[in-house]
Specification:
The complex is a heterodimer of chains A (about 220) and B (about 425).
Chain A: E1 2-6, H1 10-22, E2 26-30, H2 33-42, E3 47-50, E4 53-54, E5 57-58, H3 60-68, E6 75-79, H4 84-92, E7 97-100, H5 105-121, E8 126-129, E9 132-135, E10 140-143, E11 146-148, H6 152-163, E12 168-170, H7 171-179, H8 191-205, E13 212-215, E14 219-222
Parallel strand pairs in A: 1-2, 1-3, 3-6, 6-7
Antiparallel strand pairs in A: 4-5, 8-9, 9-10, 10-11, 12-14, 13-14
Chain B: H1 5-55, H2 64-70, E1 74-77, E2 87-95, E3 100-113, E4 116-125, H3 128-162, H4 164-174, H5 192-241, H6 248-278, E5 286-289, H7 290-307, E6 311-317, E7 321-324, H8 326-343, E8 349-355, E9 358-364, H9 372-375, H10 392-402, E10 406-412, E11 415-421
Parallel strand pairs in B: 6-8
Antiparallel strand pairs in B: 1-4, 2-3, 3-4, 5-7, 8-9, 9-11, 10-11
Amino acid sequence: MKILIIEDERVLAESIETYLSESGFICQIASTVSDALEKISFYDYECILLDLMLPDGDGFKVLKALKQDAKTDGVIIISAKDMLATRIEGLNLGADDFLAKPFHLSELLARVQAIVRRKMFNGIPVISFNEIEIDLNAKSVRVNHKDIDLTRKEYDLLLYLFGNKNKVLSKAAIAEHLSGDMADMLDSHDFVYAHMKNLKKKLNEYGCADYIKTLYGVGYKWQG
Amino acid sequence: MTNKLLDKTLRYYIVFALLVLIISAPMSYFTTLWMYSGDTRHTLKISKRAFFKYSLPHIKESDIKVWNSMNWNIRIIDPQPQIRHDSIFNQMILDTLEHEDQPYRVLMTPIRIEKKPYSLLVRVNMIESEDLVRSIVWVFTGIILLLFAGLYFITRYLSIKLWKPFYDSLAQIEHFEIDKNIQPQWLETNIEEFSRLNQSVNKLIERNIAIYNSQQEFIENAAHELQTPLAVFQAKLDTLLQTGNITIAQADIISFLNQSVTRLSRLNKNLLLLSKLDHNHYTENELLSVPEVLKRQIDFFSLQAEAKEIQFISLIDSQLTISANSSLIEVLVSNLLLNAVRHTESSGCIDLKMIGSRLILSNTSRGEALDESKIYSRFSKVNPSSQGSGLGLSIVKKIVNHYNWKLIYKWENNLHLFEVVFDIQEKF
């Protein structure tokens, strides 16, 4: 699965590349509009991460070019310009998602996965992992073929942990993921603990292996 | 005490006019009198010369009686030894017709009739001089009244017509607000001073607006530019977390750094928001249900409160719909709620009421009222160690002002009470 990272800040692009490639994605980096346009014309990408402020112009140019070729599917705008107008313009031009800087890499990965899944599974959106099955359409989870009753937050949490397999997730990152747009209004991340405890308890009750590791004082990790 | 320019001018005019009157009235009286007495002197001399030339050569001694009975004002009288030549003086003479003394100007001179000395007496009634004084007083009163009326009306005319552009400019300068983006429109004027004034004020305003705009632009650019290094920072922290073998102490540091990134990023967003509010960027309004906005936010913040063991009670009894920008309303509500959650201590209480067009949010305080003069200013913090950016309430205030609503702070029963009155009449 190929991903194009259009971002002029080299260090950031490389961090994203490292994180995503560890989760099985093949990444390419373009740091200018012209570079990006060239790469787009040669290859097809499952997902494109697009920064809007590039040294040789506006990232919207890339979006417009993609729209002309009907290839906009799978664009996530990653921008410092977090304004409603920018969001709306981006989404109108065909982008799928908007992630404001700064963001957690785990959050970015979760968003990329959501887009890739939508493209790949196309109608049969069920992920399975050993005894767990996650139905993305119905937003339901089955363990050992038995439906388990999860709250919306617990479901989000499970998907997030599972998506960031083998990655250490800080409480802050999880809290922000669960709070969506309101993330920066959080003062305390303590509520994560309660959700995590409930999720682990429910999974345990249905005989699910203990995939979620607690790293004391550090965060959580899906191991498997 | 200050006076209007024109009142002051008028005062000077009136003082000057009075002075002129006071000096000129006696002056003209005496001048007229002097000229009049000069005239009578002349008249007396002419009468005397006429008598000398035409009458004296023919008068005989026997004629004197007849002459005197026919001439009242030119008489031949017994010689006055003290008079040697022409002598003119004033004398009160009893008027037998009017039975009163009347002022006369008299000329006496020695004459000889048939070699015998006599005196000639020529006189003129001066009764007119009293009338003269009266006339002068009347004329001057008339003139002064006319002058005052004239000054008053001219001043009024000046203030209405001539000074109008000036007063208009003054009012516009008084009401000028740099963040409103409205350039004053001056009245046309062909008076050099006024057009110079308008031009210099224009220049001043233009320069200030340019500085103001560049300052705003700077804030916006700075806020945007800061987000990218913050993104790098955040990404590197996440990468660091993946390196394995992180101790609890190290994780603690990472968690603090994470918090700082979030705070910085929020600070940036708030600065941007304030700068946009200053620039009136939020002009697109839509119809919004306030209770719905509230319900969405309450879900999020009641969880936050719960985690902090704060009791959160909400009561919504309103179907208020307003025309406003949805992001601004969300910011307004979330900033108030965030403050409440942030500044209420564990086991405290937050109470949200939405009744009619009033939103009342109260929370347990630490035992003292907030200083209302400070809470709305930027970067003022009651608790310096708190996580807040110090911009929350100034943003709330700005938004409330933007829509001409009301924001009231009260401290009652150990509760901080913030009330927003959505004054919907203004916008519909």
